[in-house]
Amino acid sequence: MLALLGLATALVAPQGFRTIQAWRRATDVDAALGALAALGANAREQGRRLRFEAGPLPADAVGGLPEGWTIELDAPLVVQANGACGSTTGVLREGSYARRFAIEAPYCRIALDVPPAP
Fold it and tell me: How many whole angstroms separate alpha carbon 60 and alpha carbon 100?
């Protein structure tokens, strides 16, 4: 009986761990993309224009980015002091995981799984 319980646990546990990892990753992706979507509100609160160059963003450029995650923009992004965003695309990364996104003007809306910029 104990052997059967051990076998069942050995079969089920790995899938459970993968499911938990997928939930954690989804939570981190939501947090990171939410931080990007909040750039317009951040610019309004600060009362100044924000500019981000193409390439990797500095770790402190976007508040709320989960630890270990990076954002790389394909083209510069400008967020006006009134909160209006320009458009750009980029990649959200953590280890070997990567998710493409677009920031859409003028409301900093986020679209996922977009093709790379030409």
Answer: 20
